Amino acid sequence: MSDRNAEYDFKWCPGCGDFGVKRALEWAMQTYSEETETPMADTVMVAGIGCSGNMVHLVEGEQPFGIHGIHGRTLPVAFGVKQARPQTNTIIVAGDGDFLSIGAEHIGPAAQRNVDMTCVIMDNGVYGLTKGQASPTTIFGTQTSSTPFGKLEAAVKPFEQYLAHGVSFIGSHYSSRPRDLAKLIGEAMNHKGFSIVHVQSPCTTYNDTFDLLKGNKKAGIAPLVYAIPEDHDPSDKEQAEKLARAPGVPLGVIYKEDRPTLEDRQAEVRVKARSRTPQEMLDTYAV
Amino acid sequence: MGTTDLVVRFAGEAGVVTSAESLAATAAQAGYHVQTYATFPSQILGGPVHTQVHISTSPTLSDGDDVDVLVAFSEDGFNNHKDSLVPDGVIIYNSGEFDPPGDSNSFGLPFDDIAKEVGNARASNMVVLGAIAPLANFPLEALKEYVTKRFTRGRPGDEQIVEANSLALDRGAEAAEKSGFHLAELDPPIRPDYEQIMISGNAAIALGAVQGGLDFYAGYPISPATTVLVWMEANLVGEDRFAYQVSSEIEAIGAIIGAGYNGRKSMTATAGPGVALMSEGLGFAWMAEIPCVVVDVQRGGPATGLPTKTEQSDLFACMYPAHGDVRMPVIAPGTVEECFYAGALAVNWAERYQGPVMLMSEMQQAERSQNIPKPDLSKVTAAGREVYKGDMNGYQRYEPDEMGPMPLPGGPGAYVANASEHDGIGDSTHLPIRHIRGTERRFGKLKLLNDGPHEIENPDAAIAVMPWGGSKGPVREAYLQLQEEGVDIGWLYSMTLHPLPEAISEQLNKKEIVIVPELNYQGQWSRLLRADGYRATSITQYTGLPFKVGFLVEEIKQAVAAHKGGKVLV
Ligand SMILES: Cc1ncc(C[n+]2csc(CCOP(=O)(O)OP(=O)(O)O)c2C)c(N)n1
Ligand code: SF4
Ligand SMILES: [Mg+2]
User: Does the distance separating the beta carbons of A76 and B254 come in below 8 Å?
Assistant: First the structure.
């Protein structure tokens, strides 16, 4: 919405990975709207707090509805959004700190319920907005402003966590190939259930990992990203677990499982349960 | 000479809850006014428990100070409660369990043995209730009608159960008659000429909220609010309606904000610890202007506090739950009947001013059952949401200084509901003028909510009592007693603590002193009133128990005398 709005004064730093994610999201949302023949207004983007969360103000083109709430609470809010009107295309955009540190407690419940919504996590291995402290995905031993002697904790392993929680769609990508990323996000949106697309989205200011991700021949750096082998079967949990444990950043779908969503189960309950009017409820208390 | 009131307390472990429920239901069916009170330990089994039933020929205001009949199921129950008995009261104890040292005001009955003799080990409650009847001239027939109704469920064996329970009643009654004890005779009921319901405070809040149009409920179990969650799970189900047990209070507040944003009337209920966890979320709802309702059924605090006791110590936490400049609308019903109307009002207020509303109840009225006039639902309307229906994008929801319609996802007017300070469309901004206008807009809307139910009596008196929330009943009894004694004080009561109705503010301005009895240490309500420029002082109690009328009468008298004697109370 920033193009219309001179007052909004937040800017991503030049080269920030989130620009690529933004383009991918714009394409994915537009495509979803066209393919499902639903208006863009049926999409609600729930944003976390961080550089990444500003996505909700920065996406251009036809505008979805948006919520920019409090740090770490995207999933609870998105859950309410989805419960209110199940036809809502609900998208969460958040950083590694927001999603995996302060908000980590909410991943399990959302995954277990298999709420039909899509998370796009911008992992830059750092707290960008608060200017460069260690995040859950910061690598062990890394010096940051909050870890002057090197980070004393090992980095969390998002894919292993997601699998353990029972997330039913797990995608992995990076910000430098927005077209491919858009396709992956689209797949996640079309997946019936709780989906996470975990994106390496480097912070050029505090943790520039572009060379590490893409590789740099001159500097002798082998790329971390690699295409998921053709023969990988994402519906096979053991294969997914292997991929999740492997070094590097796979590009594509790690895991996909079809199982009923919470909304499906609630629809069943609604049919079974007797819905009573307030008057009928009141009458049960008659003396 | 007859009496208008009978107070029966059941003390011990097992059996006290069912006994009280059965007696209360019977008395209500017979046409009496009834109020029950229960206190529980937090452990699941065992430990001291007591329940109390206050039966009266006129509407009951409190659970009763003094006990006429004490039923002791255990020796602990006997020892812990015998001193609450009025001088000519009677104790019935379970002689199958223990024998107290010679006490002239008591007689023993082997509850369980008699139940076994009549052929139903579970009928011991009825032995007890049968024994109470002749003591106080309580109609035994009404109890028999009750057991017939209760156990005729269309199952094989119903008849035997009814018979055994009736027999149990008779055996209890015979024993009591033989004991030679008698209480003042309870006057016959004056059957109310209106329809009634028997309901607990928590169920009344839930039902009221549903009548207010509630669509979505999210909650996490916590005493004494759990029964609201359980009620919602069972009842709030149907097309576009659902209740869900979420993983924490943090998730609960987030979920009701999300649902409120996406067009649903949403609510959660919790107790103090949950309100603490919802703090940031409540600030978010205030900032982004999202309708939602948070019910705080207070227990003793701070921290885990007294989970199963009553207190009114969350007022600061509910009025100012969040950091930054906020002041929540607060509704605090003072009776079970008011709980119903408060539930509906809270949902309506949230829609009307587009923001979060706090509804405060408390343990002692949450689990208390009472017979109240049956609400006429046709008179309790649900406010509709004012939805933006324009056709352009770029609607500036937050631009005007006054509130306007809310866009709904799926429709026109896409915007960002933002917890950061924002401009008209909801994009973050740091401009001073935006923060000034935003802050003033958020506080300005509160003026839409000054229509709360309130009571003013004796408006010319220089001194008034002004209870809040669940202390209303005992304070009302004390006030009526003081009126009879000729003490010149006024009565002020408002079901809404913020904003206050104008008529109440006017009254407060006129008073030399307002006396606020409240169940907390700091005198939270009188402090808030003083902060708003009124002259108020508190009578405090922090025992985990409700007020006793006798205590209040004395304390109010002393405060009045001190004020008149020139002592500065504020
Ligand atoms: C409750 C709370 N704690 C701390 C903060 C401060 N804070 C804002 S953003 C942020 C971390 C952001 O990191 P991340 O989620 O990785 O987003 P990024 O900026 O890297 O995109 C923190 C700690 C806050 N806003 N709220
Ligand atoms: S600080 Fe890092 S994450 Fe934040 S905008 Fe700049 S480059 Fe992007
Ligand atoms: Mg980050």
Answer: yes
Query: Phi, psi at residue B446, to the nearest 5°?
Result: -60, -25
Concatenated DSSP letters for B291-340?
-EEEEEEE-B-STT-BTTS-----HHHHHS-SSSS----EE---SHHHHH
Q: How confident is the model at residue B147 (pLDDT cuts 50, 70, 90)?
A: very high
* Closest residue on chain B to A285 (Cα): B197
B95's tokens: 């002689």
Q: Is residue A96 within 8 Å of residue B311, measured between CB atoms?
A: no
* CA separation for the pair A125, B197 (Å, rounded): 60
CA nearest neighbour of A195 among A179, A172, A178:
A172
Q: What number of other Cβ atoms are within 10 A of residue A195's Cβ?
A: 31
Characterize the bridge pairing of strands B185-186 and A225-227: unpaired
Q: Show the ligand 1 pocket: residues with CB < 6 angstroms.
A: A 48-52, 71, 95-98, 122, 124, 126-130, 135
Residue with tokens 């006039």: B373
Phi, psi of B539, deg, nearest 5: -110, 115
Residue B525: C-alpha distances to residues A63, B351, B469, B490, B521 (Å): 46, 26, 10, 18, 11
Of A64, A80, A109, nearest to B257 by CB-CB distance is A80
Put simply, whether A287 touches B (Cβ < 8 Å) is: yes
Q: How many CA atoms lie within 13 A of B164 on its CB side?
A: 20
pLDDT the model gives residue B135: 93
Q: Judge: domain A2-260, CATH 3.40.109.10.
A: no
The predicted-structure confidence for A116-142, as pLDDT tens digits, reads as follows 999 999 999 999 999 999 999 999 999
Task: Inform me whether the pLDDT recorded for B275 exceeds 60.
Answer: yes
Q: What local confidence, expressed as pLDDT, does residue B563 receive?
A: 95
φ and ψ at residue B444, rounded to 5 degrees = -60, -35
| B288-298: average pLDDT | 98
Q: How confident is the model at residue B42 (pLDDT cuts 50, 70, 90)?
A: low
Question: Looking at residue B332, what is its pLDDT?
Answer: 98
For chain A, residues with pLDDT lower than 70 are 1-4
Kind and range of the H or E element at B382? none
The predicted structure's pLDDT at residue B47: 60
A2 interfaces chain B, CB cutoff of 8 Å: yes
Residues with CB under 6 Å of ligand 2 are: A 12-13, 16, 18, 51, 124, 128, 203-206
CA-CA distance, B357 to B302, in Å (whole number)? 22
Q: What would the two tokens of residue B534 be?
A: 């009124």
Q: Which helix (H) or strand (E) holds B35?
A: strand B33-39
- A74 φ, ψ (degrees, to nearest 5): -60, -45
CA atoms of A253 and A235, how far apart (whole Å): 10
Q: Give B373→chain A minimum CA distance, Å.
A: 10
Q: Which of B266, B308, B243 is nearest to B48 (CA)?
A: B308
d(CA B20, CA B11): 10
B253: Cβ–Cβ under 8 A, 6 or more apart, which residues?
A: A76, B268, B277, B278, B281, B282, B285, B292, B294
Within 13 Å and on the Cβ side, how many CA atoms surround B155? 10
Task: Tell me what the mean pLDDT of segment B183-198 comes to.
Answer: 93
Q: Is it true that the peptide bond before B302 is cis, omega within 30 degrees of 0?
A: yes
Asked whether residue B65 carries a pLDDT value surpassing 80, the answer given is no
Domains within chain B, CATH numbers bracketed: 5-179 (3.40.920.10), 198-374 (3.40.50.970), 386-449 (no CATH), 454-564 (3.40.50.920)
